Each structure stands twice: as structure tokens, then as C-alpha cells.
Amino acid sequence: MRKYRTVGVALFAAVAVVSGSGVANASAGWNYVGAGDFSNRDVDNGLWFTDYVQSSGGSFRTCLANKSETYTYTLWEHDSSNSRKIASKSSKGGCLVFNGIDDYVDGGNNKAELMLSTTNPEGGDGVAFYD
Predict the structure, then answer these.
(1) Measuring CA to CA, how many Å separate 108 from each of 6, 31, 53, 93, 112?
(2) For residue range 47-84, what is the model confidence (pLDDT) as tens digits?
């Protein structure tokens, strides 16, 4: 019985740590709008992309797993006809904030459709998005 209790406590602690970051983001004014991974490869540009998520504008936050190397992460606006680069940041992971998203809000839904790319040649881990 003791073995199961120890495993249960360890599992609860891991869940509390992971969900705690969501609580911290919410209390800081960030609303979770989705998650994804870098699973879409653009061979011509040598980049990996996430699927897009929607933003109401203002500032947009992405949170990535920490890496040992620095990569460039670029936020793009996605429209059915083309994609436009918004801004790039170099980082070893963690959370990145992109400001000035209001200029990319459009369409009937009054949202910006945003996706992230990485120069990591392996694509990389998942990313969480906050608006």
C-alpha cells in the first residue's frame, strides 16, 4: 500500500507543477488559446511550423520547452492566400511575447490567425499559445 501512495503523491506533484504554469499565465492576464507542435515542414525555407491558432490582437505569448541551443522562432500571420512574417526572436526556449498583433486582426471573425516557425532542424517540442 505504501508503494502506491508514494507513486500517487509523485504523480499529483507532477500534475500540480504542470497545471500551475497555466494558473500563473491566467493570473498574469494571459488566456490559453491552444497548443501544438512543429509538425509542418517547409522544405524550401528549412523551417518547421505549428498549426495556426486565433488571437484577438494586442500581445501574443508562446511558451516552449527549454533547449540547449538557441533557435530563431518566428510568428506568422496565416491567411488563406498567403502568410506574412510578423516578428522573429532568438531563444533557448521559455516564453516569448510578441506585441502589436492588432495590425493582423482581420476577416469576419475579427481575429488574427497565427502560427510559429522554428529554425530547429528537428522541428522541436510542443508550444503553448496565450492571448
Answers:
(1) 52, 22, 15, 34, 11
(2) 999 999 999 999 999 999 888 899 999 999 998 778 89
Closest CA to 72 of 62, 57, 58: 62
Identify the CATH class of 31-130: mainly beta
Report the distance separating Cα 109 and Cα 107, nearest Å.
5
Is the Cβ–Cβ distance between 47 and 38 less than 8 Å?
Answer: no
Question: Would the CA dihedral through 81, 110, 128, 99 be positive or negative?
Answer: positive
* pTM for this prediction: 0.77
Beta strands in the chain (DSSP E): 32-37, 40-42, 47-49, 53-55, 60-64, 71-78, 83-91, 94-98, 112-118, 126-130
Domain boundaries, the chain: 1-29, 31-130
- Using a CB cutoff of 8 Å and minimum separation of 24, what contacts does 99-102 make? 99/58, 99/59, 100/59, 101/55, 101/57, 101/58, 101/59, 101/60, 102/57, 102/58
